Amino acid sequence: MAIRHGFSFKVGVGLLMGLALSLSACTEKTSTGVWVDATVDLAKSPNSAVTYHDVASQIYRTGASYPYNALPSKGNVNVLVVPIEFKDYPFVQAKLGTDGTDDHRLTDINTLFNGSDEDTKYWKSLSGFYKESSFEQLNITATIAATYKMTETPEEFLTPPENGKSYDGTSKIVALMRTVIADYKTKNGADSTKKFDGDGDGVIDGLYLVYSCYDYQRAKQHGLSENESYWAFSTNDNSAPSVDSPIGGNFMWASYDFMYTGVAEKSGVDAHTFIHETGHLLGLDDYYNYDDINNNEKIAAKYQRFAPMGALDMMDYNILDHDIWSKFALGWASPYVLDSKVQLPATMTLKDSVSSKGDFLIIPSASGYNGTAFGEYLVVELYSPTGLNALDAKKSYGSTRPKGFRTPGVKIYHVDSRLAKFVAGVGSYDEEPTLAKLAESKTGQFYTVVANNTPSYSYDNPGYRLIHLLESNGVLTFDNYDASTGKDLTTSSYANDSTLFSGAEGHNRFSMKKFSSFFENGQKFNNGQAFPYSIRINQVKTDSEGASSVSLTIAAA
Fold it and tell me: Which of 422, 431, 420 is nearest to 376 (CA)?
């Protein structure tokens, strides 16, 4: 994404909607604090009227400037996986002392995408993860194509960098993808890719190229010169679509050895990286900060070092489940919403998002809730170290990643996912996006999300973050820059159990006054609206079966 020019602002009035919420209290283990019984019973609002797939599809329809399509987030989805074998780096290894061969890597690719929990011997396959994460609303089935054999070595295909300089081989990888798909059609028929285009837009819904050499970080120790394009990433092609013979659009490029990040080769397979990249194919952004990694001098230092999600999220450090807002934006979960009709103070009970299969609460600003995931509000989710969170809460993924949250606790996110309509490069916020408005998009006129967790990618203000996990003590430790001294700090930007809100004193209250440092506009939301509430976490309880619930009270600010 490039920074836009000539952006104008329009703050609309959101549509207030009814809510819901009230669940039975659990017993057994409790956090500190006192349980308070619910005084209100909110009703759930429908799923978001606009999803990421809707947004990505209309952007794709607008023409060559923004040719981004997305994997459907619901239903039965067929994806295509092509193993790419470089010269001198065969997938199938010769068995020493025998005349046979060992094809475990190709077998592992199938297990990675389609296997059962038992098959992976570690965690989840890609299909298993998304079936569970989507609450059984997304069923991915992968076809593993015949291996595409390269006539070049990795170094011949992508020129190694010189004198410490990086080398971007994305254009060559995109060209290779086109060749690979053309070869697939030659061998299987011109219409053979139609079964991978479930939404009928002329583009393969999900495409994965798994190459046979090491990733660039491991390359040196194996005698292969470094090249940063030998990594795992998602990119796209802007070629014209074909409904009769779908092309490759968005696709993932990754080394086979990412299958073994969390396990030893031949002892299981690890899908973490492939799950993260599939999040991109679904339309989700990275939630970490590229400017932090690249030390972007064009962005003020106070933004460069910020880590909005504290690493602990699938779209941040490739760990845990997707956060509940991402699931909402993909159409998998529906919210309880606090509206102006609720008499305050109001106490409610919220179940953890795992055992409840998607319960969470939205608290909008004074402008209200517009019925979609694309607005500005606070999200309240009760996290539990169960389900897809369980493994990463107990075991570090790889050698450098932190463990996930190990205890149940409340996550409060500030989300600014407002859409803007861009016409000839100039954008203005639309506070009430609808499918009908998206359908009117055309070349040079489209809607897109404005804020981003990478400051230089944000179209409006570099301090407007897409999704920001608030720290329960009110101290902004994810920011490794001290504005008062102009110096970097040494504190870790990783979240931990104390980040979560609980009934414990000092970690149990939210108010805009206490958390003003977390907001670009101090005690107002990015949209200029006041947030007229305070939140108190009374107590978190966990029952003998591991299901948790929280009592929380909302009062006027």
Answer: 431
